[in-house]
Amino acid sequence: MICEMIPTEEYKIMLEKLAIPCVDVVVENSEGEILMIKRSNEPAKGQWWLPGGRIFKKETIKDAAIRKISEEVGLELTEVIVVGAYETIFDKGPFGIESGTHSVNVLVKGSIKSFDNMKTNGDHSDVKFFKDVDESWHSYLKEAIADARKK
Predict the structure, then answer these.
(1) 76 occurs within a structural domain
(2) How many domains does the chain have?
(3) Does 1 fall in a domain?
(4) How far apart are CA 11 and CA 4, in angstroms?
(5) pLDDT value at 44 more than 50
(6) What is the mean pLDDT of residues 95-111?
(7) Domain with 16 in it: what CATH number?
């Protein structure tokens, strides 16, 4: 691992004061369906979302994407391509943070050799593929998936 986990109290302070760098990963299967996870925590609790998360200091975007796909869905990511940079701002944050969160999201598109060992972890309650973008999804997801499909 690139860095130690940040103690929760320190991380709360960071979330209250800073935009946090994140990587989100678009993975399509052979049918052109997008891999999504159902979030168990704020922000976006209970919503379908792209796998991804925080980028650690001294961790490249590619390495962060590979790590997050392994941690969140148990798969091996290959051939990472940067799609673009976006922002997400939420009114609710994790740990009951009332000031919300602000993330700078680097969107990447990657490939998976095999989906045989796909799993969930404690950060989400489900994982599945979607052919179509749902109109109820966050505007960031709609834009990000459309942009990734053009690459």
Answers:
(1) yes
(2) 1
(3) no
(4) 12
(5) yes
(6) 92
(7) 3.90.79.10
